[in-house]
Each structure stands twice: as C-alpha cells, then as structure tokens.
C-alpha cells in the first residue's frame, strides 16, 4: 500500500537552506511567522563543503556576514569554503531556524489560494513561498565535449577538488572567470596548464577591501539605476570580473592563455584560432544552468529566468525569489549581500499581511 504524504500547513515555505534561505529565515523568525526551510543536503553548509579544497570567498569577511551575525574571521581575510560552511551551520543553530534537511523539492504549484510544495513523501501548503535556491543548479558542459577522445579526463569545476585527483599530463581549463582562473593558477604549479576563454576584467583588490566602495555598490549600482542596469547587463554577457587575480598574476603563475574553445577535431579541443591542443585533462569551468522546471507557474521569461523585481513576483502574489545574481545589486548572490534582499522581501510580506485579514503574522515562528 502506497503511504499517503504527510501534510504541513504553514504561513511560509523557504526552498533552499543556503545563505539566502538562512537570511530569509532570520527575518521570518523576527516576524513570528510559522515557516520552514527545506534543504536537500544532509547538513547545512554542504554546498560549500563540497567545492574545491583551496576555494575562498571572493569577498572579505567584513562583507560576508548574514543578518545579526558577523563572520567570525579577521575582517580583511577571505574565508575558506569550510569556514563559510561552518559559519552557515552555526548561524542556523544560533537562531534556531526550522530547517528540514534531506528535503528535495519536486514541485511547486498553486493550491487553494496559496501554494502546494511537494518534497518526497511530504507536502506543504503555504500562503507564501520563497525560492532561495539561487541559479546554480546544473553544471554546464558544452555538448561537443562528448566528442573528446575518451583517454582525455574531463570534469566540471564542481567536481574538482585538488591537483592530486588528476592524472599526469597537460591540463586545459575552459572558462576564464574567477573559478577557472584560480583553478588554473593552482594547477600551473605542478603541470603545464592552458586557460581558455575571453578576458572578463578584474576588480582592483583595494576596491574589494574598501568598505565605502562596497557600500556604494550596494546603494548606487542597483537595478533601479541606469548605471546599475548597465553593469548587470555587462555581467550577464561577460561574467563577473576577477577579484583576487589580475591577468598579469595568471601569466606570472605560468598559465598559458589561449583563445576560446570552439569545438573538437580529431578528438582534441579546437581553439578559435584553429589550433588543436594535446592535453590529458579538461576542466570545464563553464558555469551552471538554472533549473526551475519544478515550478509549475507562469512566472518565467523565454530564457527560463524568473520575472520579478527585487525578488517580488507580480504575476504570482506570495511567491518570491532570493539569491539571484544581481537581483538588486552586484552582491545580491554573495553571502554578505543576500541579507538586504531578504529584508526587502520580509518587508513586502509584512505589508501584504497587513492588507489581509487573519493571524498569519502572529503565529509561532517555528515548526518541526
């Protein structure tokens, strides 16, 4: 006999227990809402723990804290990925946020004036849903990668951990953004390493360490300003600029810059200038693709991106998105930037509740 799904009736469901979901949870708790955070991982912070060993945040610790809890590291240091994971776990514990782990959401749809969320053998009904999964769902690898010679080891940057996991031989890193550049520099210390992709520019390190410049970015470079929209559009085309590395640093490390990879010929990577590279390993630092296919609501554009303003979805009252790149400012998808967007959504939730009868905002803040 098939077991019937267990049901939970709530004011708000938050999908995703990373930095965005935790920041949202903090503000929901201050409003004494009955809510839950659904997280697919087995432990808070595992998304960070499972990245490559030497990864550090691209923002300093003073700009990497969530609401009401500064990051416990020297202010101008760049926290490691494990420090970040432990910080997120400590944050959830400190504020006793109601996180349900091992809950991968399969669907979200309208239901009885609100929303119905399915996660395994559980279903949740709620007036509000905050999708805090970010946009980085599926590693993207070009389709022509399948034509590479099977003797060439291939892996996405999400699978890369350290140089020791790779077989001997030359390496091609495809994608010259922050991840690709830092992985290439690490690999170049022990083997010939090529880095393919266009220049993305770089942010001067003094700019990243300057509190005032980061404050300006969060208050002037917004989607409501012409300059902010121009920066957003540029980043969508080119990607984020390099933070810790300059082009000169990459060359000084011994990395050989090459044009973009356009395809495969004779089983080898073919560059835009026609050259074929003889390599033993290809690391695809080619980013991720979003997957919101589980959301059965007409709230996306032709490219599959949510249609919203500052996370508020006009076409589906009560639905919100959080943690998207440049959701409002350049730091909207950063650990230290997501709190501002979460606060805005919380204010919108409170305003909506005041317009509607009922005790939604005065119910207990936690559910288990």
Feature tags:
FAD/NAD(P)-binding domain; 368 residues; 2 domains; alpha/beta
Outline the biggest β-sheet.
7 strands, mixed
- Specify the oligomeric state: single chain
Name the CATH superfamily assignment of the largest domain.
FAD/NAD(P)-binding domain
Radius of gyration based on Cα positions: 22 Å
- Reading off the top of the CATH hierarchy, the class of the largest domain is best stated as Alpha Beta
Description:
The protein has nine helices and 16 strands. Strands 1, 2, 3, 4, 5, 6 and 16 form a seven-stranded mixed beta sheet that branches. It has helices at 19-30, 46-49, 81-94, 178-188, 205-208, 211-220, 226-238, 247-252, 338-355, and strands at residues 6-15, 35-38, 99-100, 105-111, 114-119, 122-131, 138-139, 153-156, 171-174, 193-196, 256-258, 261-265, 268-271, 281-284, 288-289, 319-321. The model is unreliable at 358-368 (pLDDT under 50). The chain is of the alpha/beta class. Helix content is 25%, strand content 20%. The protein folds into two domains: 6-137 and 290-362, FAD/NAD(P)-binding domain; 143-202 and 241-284, FAD/NAD(P)-binding domain, CATH 3.50.50.60.
